[in-house]
Design goal:
Blueprint lengths: L1 H15 L4 E3 L7 E3 H23 L8 H20 L7 H17 L5 H10 L14 H34 L9 H41 L3 H40 L4
Antiparallel strand pairs: 1-2
Length: about 270
């Protein structure tokens, strides 16, 4: 019996953690995770539509509640950018706001009940394998962090020029002597690689762990009446605590985006 329950528990968790994957070609690297792409795209459209809706209804007089909320949000993000980024904020501030809202919405998908969403996806959309938390997919967080890395390189070249950026890549921080070029290059490569790694894995790890804990609590709740009671209590407690994680991880991802782009424009 213990083996049977263990297998049931394992299959339950595996079912909720299986992606809707679509192979492109013969190589396994070229695989599209349809669920992450679809949910991320839909939430991106929703975030854009919400901000557009607020801006469209903005007035120069006394703001309504939704306009006041967005103005406070934009003012908060702009203050964060102003304290870190010392160049023109015409692009960085809207980018930071977009990152914050988009990542926050993707994180918040973790609050949707896993079993109810699985039933809807199975019986309504006929999708047996479909995960609805894009940021619990390392491919999503890596795509976001690599986009930030590319932006950082773009701004570094825009400020220093291509020649200046390449010179810094090989001549800093140890010096411009040709003997030191390989060491400078390796040191800078470590920095360029570690940034997207830490940027992506921090968000992914927190959201994936949160998803696992939710599944374990619902699995416990299905074992017995006492399990349902304590599982429900702990589930409510974890949901409240998870609100902080969802918001905090979106904020951290936004702040690191600002910091990395700002660092790219500085000289060693």
């Amino acid at each position: 019996m213990a083996t049977e329950h263990e297998l049931n528990a394992t299959s339950y968790i595996q079912h909720h953690l299986t992606f809707k994957a679509q192979a492109v070609g013969d190589h396994p690297f070229w695989t599209l995770y349809v669920d992450s792409l679809v949910v991320g795209l839909v939430l991106g459209v929703v975030a854009t539509a919400l901000l557009w809706w607020v801006v469209r209804g903005a007035t120069s007089g006394v703001p309504n509640k939704r306009q006041a909320f967005v103005e406070l949000l934009f003012g908060f993000v702009d203050d964060q950018v102003k304290g870190i980024f010392h160049g023109k904020r015409d692009f960085i501030a809207p980018t930071a706001l977009t990152v914050l809202v988009w990542v926050l919405l993707m994180n918040a998908m973790d609050f949707l009940p896993a079993d109810i969403m699985a039933w809807i996806l199975t019986h309504v959309f006929h999708q047996e394998e479909f995960r609805i938390v894009p940021t619990a997919d390392v491919n999503t967080t890596f795509a976001l962090s690599i986009s930030v890395l590319l932006l950082s390189i773009y701004f570094a070249i825009a400020v220093k020029g291509l020649r200046g950026w390449i010179h810094e890549l090989f001549c800093a921080p140890f010096g411009a002597h040709p003997v030191l070029w390989p060491f400078n290059f390796l040191f800078n490569m470590v920095e360029y690689i570690s940034k997207p790694l830490s940027h992506s894995l921090r968000l992914y790890g927190n959201m994936y762990a949160g998803e696992i804990i939710f599944l374990l609590l619902w699995l416990w709740a299905a074992t017995s009446l006492s399990g349902a009671f304590f599982g429900a209590i702990l589930g409510v407690g974890w949901s409240i605590f998870h609100i902080l994680i969802v918001v905090l991880q979106a904020y951290i991802f936004m702040m690191l985006t600002i910091v990395y782009i700002s660092m790219a424009q500085e000289s060693h």
